[in-house]
Write a structure and sequence with these properties.
InterPro entries: HATPase_C_sf (IPR036890), HATPase_dom (IPR003594), His_kinase_dom (IPR005467), HisK_dim/P_dom (IPR003661), HisK_dim/P_sf (IPR036097), PAC (IPR001610), PAS (IPR000014), PAS-assoc_C (IPR000700). The structure is a single chain. This protein has about 500 residues and is α+β, with helices and mostly antiparallel strands. It has four domains: about 130 residues, Beta-Lactamase (2-Layer Sandwich); about 100 residues, Beta-Lactamase (2-Layer Sandwich); about 80 residues, Signal transduction histidine kinase, dimerisation/phosphotransfer (DHp) domain (Helix Hairpins), CATH 1.10.287; about 160 residues, Histidine kinase-like ATPase, C-terminal domain (Heat Shock Protein 90, 2-Layer Sandwich). It is about 40% helix and about 25% strand. The protein contains 13 helices and 17 strands. A five-stranded antiparallel beta sheet has the order 2-1-5-4-3. It has a five-stranded antiparallel beta sheet with strand order 7-6-10-9-8. Strands 12-14-15-17-16 form a five-stranded mixed beta sheet. β4 and β5 form a beta hairpin. The N terminus is likely disordered. The structure holds adenosine-5'-diphosphate (ADP). The site of adenosine-5'-diphosphate has 22 residues, from α12 and α13.
């Protein structure tokens, strides 16, 4: 057999037909080229002819370097001599990447495995050659993706050594790629946190799984210059021939953190100025009550005791003063009431709205009877809130519903529906209704749509309702058209199941 092919018959049955070896080589999917110690091609298969575009005749007896681009030939020669001096099997993909050269001069990436063959005619080398174009293309695509990723991508092995990084990693941490590869990942973490990180890392590799960004994995990164910055990290295991590695995507969240801090400061400032404003409204309305009371008191005294000494016009003017002062007193009382809502932190408890409504009906008894009104309601649930505020909310809405239904036998209908963890209430009347352009305005303080002579009031009731509902984490709005009645909607949180209501 060595006579015909030069291939030793290792592992073959003694009676095997030597032509089978030729067929084996011929039909191999890789290009096969056998060279002698001088680097001359002594055997090629059909796939090698196809790969390089030469015929068998053109190749046989030529130096193997004809299949290597000119600029690499000298280097290849040295390698070849080195290999023959110390021959050993070299697998595909392990070692230098060398392009191949076709007959037409074009080049293409190849993957080569080498196996020495010792024969009684001397040493030969069998090279199996594969076109690596497709693989290279896929590889290039992966590289491009990796390099253009907005996050720093770092691949580490199970021992925590960095195996691969992308351009963003270099930019983010200020290291050159070369000085990171092979180093422990902890190089990118502040020193004081390194041992803890190493423990985490070992723990991760014990049960590696995908861990997305923003799931509590916040860490500090350390740049080459020692400066630190907050990062968010996602991890995913990566199966490799060398076992499970991990891919970490690292994002610099400095800006986001700063933004979050700014937002928190802003919210805190807003809260403070709101508190100050409420405090001011409270003190102002409280302090204005005393002088106003004396103004009303003295003008009434004047009317009672000195009416005889005043002419008709003076008495009429005095009447206006008293009336205006009284209206001002109502406004100030309402403002005081408004600024009292949710002034202090209150604990939310389960509040039974059936109980709430019976209290409201009780308080409005005289009004309801005098107007011959009818109030109907669906079975009302238990909500989570501050009881006296919920009472005030229902009372204001029912009072308005009665007030703005000037006809006989006004009707108010209260309904409720469950919506997730919330209750959606409606208070409906068949009164005068509200034009669409005022649907928002009526919830602002002191905003009224009618003069006091027509409908009494201060314009604070709905502002209080809005404040109460929002304090409870809900929402209030109106659905209405002039002449077609109004439906006030509001949403309150439902009490957790199993908790009894505290209301009486
Ligand atoms: P007040 O009732 O003291 O005027 P509110 O804040 O309770 O103040 O209401 C503001 C305005 O919204 C009222 O003046 C009225 O014009 C309008 N409004 C409130 N409730 C109703 C209703 N049920 N039907 C028609 N208009 C209403």
């Amino acid at each position: 057999m060595t006579e015909t092919t030069g291939i030793p018959a290792i592992g073959a049955a003694a009676d095997i037909d030597p032509r089978w070896y030729r067929d084996l080589v011929e039909t191999a999917p890789d290009g096969m080229v056998l060279i002698d110690a001088e680097g001359r091609i002594v055997l090629v298969n059909a796939q090698a002819e196809r790969l390089f575009g030469y015929t068998r005749e053109e190749l046989l007896g030529q130096s193997i370097e004809m299949l290597v681009p000119e600029k690499y030939r000298r280097g290849h020669l040295r390698h070849r001599e080195g290999f023959f001096a110390e021959p050993r099997t070299r697998e595909m993909g392990a070692g230098t990447e060398l392009p191949g050269r076709r007959k037409d001069g074009t080049e293409f990436p190849v993957e080569i495995s080498l196996s020495p063959l010792r024969t009684d005619r001397g040493l030969y080398v069998m090279a199996a050659i594969r076109n690596a174009q497709e693989r290279k293309r896929a590889n290039d695509k992966f590289r491009a993706l990796l390099e253009t990723a907005p996050d720093a991508i770092i691949i580490i092995d199970a021992a925590g050594r960095i195996r691969l990084v992308n351009a963003q990693t270099e930019r983010l941490f200020g290291y050159q790629r070369d000085s990171l590869i092979g180093k422990p990942i902890e190089i990118l973490i502040p020193e004081r946190l390194r041992s803890r990180h190493a423990e985490h890392r070992t723990g991760y590799f014990r049960s590696p799984k995908v861990r997305g960004m923003g799931v509590g994995l916040e860490l500090l990164g350390r740049r080459k210059d020692g400066t630190e910055f907050p990062v968010e990290i996602s991890l995913s295991p990566l199966e490799t021939e060398e076992g499970v590695w991990a891919t970490a995507a690292v994002r610099d969240v400095t800006e986001r953190k700063a933004f979050e801090r700014q937002l928190a400061d802003y919210a805190e400032n807003l809260k403070r100025s709101n508190r100050e404003l409420e405090q001011f409204a409270y003190i102002a309305s409280h302090d204005l009550r005393a002088p106003l009371r004396s103004l009303i008191g003295f003008s009434q005294l004047l009317q009672q005791r000195h009416a005889g000494r005043l002419d008709g016009e003076a008495l009429e003017f005095l009447g206006y003063i008293t009336q205006s002062a009284k209206q001002m007193q109502s406004l100030i009382d309402a403002l005081l009431e408004f600024s009292r809502v949710s002034r202090t932190e209150q604990v939310f408890v389960p509040v039974d709205c059936e109980g709430v409504l019976s209290r409201v009906v009780h308080q409005l008894r005289a009004l309801i009877d005098s107007r011959n009104a009818q109030i109907t309601h669906a079975p009302l649930p238990t909500v989570l809130g501050v009881e006296h505020e919920i009472v005030q909310l229902f009372q204001n809405l029912v009072t308005n519903a009665l007030k703005f239904q000037p006809g006989p036998q006004p009707r108010v209908e209260i309904d409720v529906q469950a919506e997730g963890g919330f209750w959606h209430f409606t208070v409906a009347d068949q009164g005068i209704g509200i034009a669409r352009e005022y649907h928002d305005r009526i919830f602002q303080i002191f905003q009224r749509l009618h003069p006091t002579e027509e409908y009494e009031g201060t314009g604070v009731g709905l502002a209080i309702c809005k404040k109460i509902v929002e304090h409870h984490g809900g929402r209030i709005w109106v659905d209405s058209e002039p002449g077609k009645g109004s439906i006030f909607h509001f949403i309150l949180r439902s009490a957790p199941p199993g908790e009894g209501a505290a209301t009486s």
